[in-house]
Specification:
Layout (H helix, E strand, L loop, with lengths): L18 E10 L7 H22 L4 E10 L3 E10 L19 H10 L13 E6 L9 H10 L2 H4 L2 E7 L6 H7 L7 E3 L5 H14 L7 H9 L16
Parallel strand pairs: 1-2, 1-4, 4-5, 5-6
Antiparallel strand pairs: 2-3
């Protein structure tokens, strides 16, 4: 990975290289995800990434890099290194038997990955996608501490943060707090068949990050607003 002091890379012919857009998935692998849910999620993620890869190949402005965190009682990197979406082959997630839905450990892992010096200075603001089928089960105070750790990192605070709740019972104030913007709704998948549709919306939002100058509120207006998707202009706003 390049460092903040890495010189600007130019493509053959003198053009400036595309700006990195980091997408990090935070995927619930608790015991409740076993069976049809995890199968549907794996299929939907693979399909979403294929769509993003097709979009990426036609891009002149941004290049999408993907990582993934799996969380249950603990959290661990499922895809630890930023991988170009065009090169990624999705490895299926596996549920953790009797695993809880502790989100704070996942927040802390992502905060470490987005710490100053870990993301290119030219990078667009990252996108974080939290997917869960249940309420946070973190011990008292731990969810808040984990989220505060993520928000203390400039790239974490400035990120587009989206959440997909698998089942209406999964929708909670915790997910709204993770998003941190009342104009951006939790994307609710009432059934496993809805997961793919919600991921399509999320991937559309990620692709528009390069066009909307990483303005989360403007992005929310274009993706989720009543007016539909408006024409936007690629901006120069970075994570710094």
């Amino acid at each position: 990975m390049t460092t903040p002091d890495t010189p600007t890379i130019r493509m053959p012919g003198g053009g400036i290289s595309r700006r990195p857009l980091h997408l990090i998935l935070l995927a619930d692998c608790s015991g409740g995800m076993k069976g049809e849910k995890i199968q549907a999620l794996n299929y939907a993620i693979a399909d979403m990434l294929a769509g993003l890869a097709a979009w990426d190949r036609g891009q002149e402005q941004a290049q999408v890099f993907v990582r993934a965190v799996a969380f249950a009682t603990e959290a661990f990197w499922h895809i630890p290194d930023p991988t170009p979406v065009v090169d990624l082959r999705w490895r299926p997630l596996e549920p953790v038997e009797r695993g809880l839905t502790n989100m704070a450990p996942a927040f802390r892992l992502v905060a470490e990955a987005l710490a100053p010096g870990r993301i290119e200075r030219r990078a667009l603001r990252p996108a974080l996608l939290l997917i869960t089928d249940g309420l946070a089960t973190d011990p008292p105070g731990q969810f808040e501490q984990g989220l505060n750790t993520l928000m203390s990192v400039p790239a974490g605070k400035g990120a587009l943060r989206l959440s997909i709740a698998i089942g209406r019972d999964a929708q909670s104030e915790s997910l709204n707090r993770f998003i941190g913007d009342p104009s951006v709704p939790v994307l609710v998948a009432d059934s496993t068949t809805d997961i793919a549709d919600r991921l399509v919306v999320a991937s559309l939002a990620v692709s528009r990050m390069s066009e909307a100058g990483a303005d989360r509120r403007a992005l929310a207006d274009t993706i989720f607003g009543k007016g539909g998707i408006a024409d936007t202009v690629f901006g120069e706003d970075t994570i710094i």
